[in-house]
Design a protein that fits this description.
Length: about 70
């Protein structure tokens, strides 16, 4: 797996963990919810940009195999 994919996955998981913590705990600052949401969105944004940049990679691999 590519390093950027690992970073994207970690951002999404950490952001989700923060949001789950804020839902289950009492007396949590609303800023933690905002931070968790921002981290998830950052991870999703980075992952989407990676997917768009590599969406045609399978076509070049297939062309190399046919030659």
């Amino acid at each position: 797996m590519n390093n950027s994919q690992v970073v994207n996955t970690l951002l999404i998981v950490v952001g989700g963990g923060i949001l789950l913590y804020t839902l289950s705990a009492d007396d949590v600052s609303p800023y933690f919810k905002i931070i968790g949401l921002v981290i998830i969105m950052l991870g999703l944004y980075r992952a989407t940009n990676f997917w768009v940049a590599t969406k045609d990679d399978h076509k070049s691999e297939n062309e190399k195999k046919e030659d």
